[in-house]
From TrEMBL:
Cited InterPro entries: GPCR_Rhodpsn (IPR000276), GPCR_Rhodpsn_7TM (IPR017452)
Matches recorded under Gene3D superfamilies: Rhodopsin 7-helix transmembrane proteins
CC per GO annotation: plasma membrane
Species annotation: Pocillopora meandrina
Protein name: G-protein coupled receptors family 1 profile domain-containing protein
SUPFAM superfamilies per the UniProt record, alphabetical: Family A G protein-coupled receptor-like (SSF81321)
A GO MF term: G protein-coupled receptor activity
Family stated for the protein in its record: Belongs to the G-protein coupled receptor 1 family.
Keywords: Cell membrane, G-protein coupled receptor, Membrane, Receptor, Transducer, Transmembrane, Transmembrane helix
Location within or outside the cell: Cell membrane
Membrane topology: Multi-pass membrane protein
Transmembrane parts of this sequence: 24-47, 99-121, 142-166, 172-191, 226-245, 257-281
Residue span, G-protein coupled receptors family 1 profile domain: 39-277
Amino acid sequence: MFNYSQQAGLHCHLSRNFSTFTGVFLALNIASSITATLGNALILVALQKESSLNPPSKLFLRCMAFSDLGVGLLVQPAAVTSFLCAAYQLWNLCLLSGFIWNFVSAFFTGFSFASITAISVDRHLALLLGIRYRQVVTIQRTRVVVALFLVVSTAYCLTFLISYNVFIASSVPMWSICLIISTYCHTRIYLTLRNHIQAQITPQGQPNGISPENLSRYRKTVSTTLWLLAAMIICNFPVFSVTIIDAATSPNLSLMMVQYFAVALIYFNSSLNPLLCCWKIREIRNAKTKRGKHNGSSFHFCPIKQLLL
């Protein structure tokens, strides 16, 4: 276990004396910062013009895009500044920018993680509640949840002011809870959709009340939920694992190098989320275009429709 001053000293030494590592880290974060900023800005503009989404779902997507925009616009530039200041031996600026980097990173990544978890829960509730979804998941209740996320994310980043050890100790349970909830929700979505597909197939193997095109759309929706879950786990599990090791070991440069690459990966998730979001919005638009051609078809089975819309 070690405090922030020890971590800052290692950070400055690493940035100054390992030029190859510093160059790679800077290149990754500069590129990812640009894509995250542009991608999430476009998502926010698209959501402003999109009227077919349910207001609660749109609000959660906006929260995710806002937090990911913050990562690209504030967090990654602060990380780059901290490394550059260390490389040019501007130690006071290095420590200040490093502190700002950690502080804003805790807020925006925490808020992004909570938003993705909320989106998973929202999709699960759409399948679970069916026609009662719109009555239960209202925009007023969604705003309360978002306000709670803001409070929790603020409290999470404030733990960094108390102690680096407290910050690390609070990170592990928060990430664990979000991962468990998201994994459970996506698993239930997958199983529910699979069971619905199987229920539509007759013993002769022919669709019963559902066209092959809509059956394919169901399967693609299941695939999309799995991609979202996989992206979240792949981008966040390394830093989750390194944080646990970090909390139990003495400070060393090798672990810090691994930790920084794991952090770069979690920042990359902010660039990846807009791509996955655009993929999902394209499905929604295609579903809207063909809705008039399938009036009365089982594509309008409410839980599936709620998931897509």
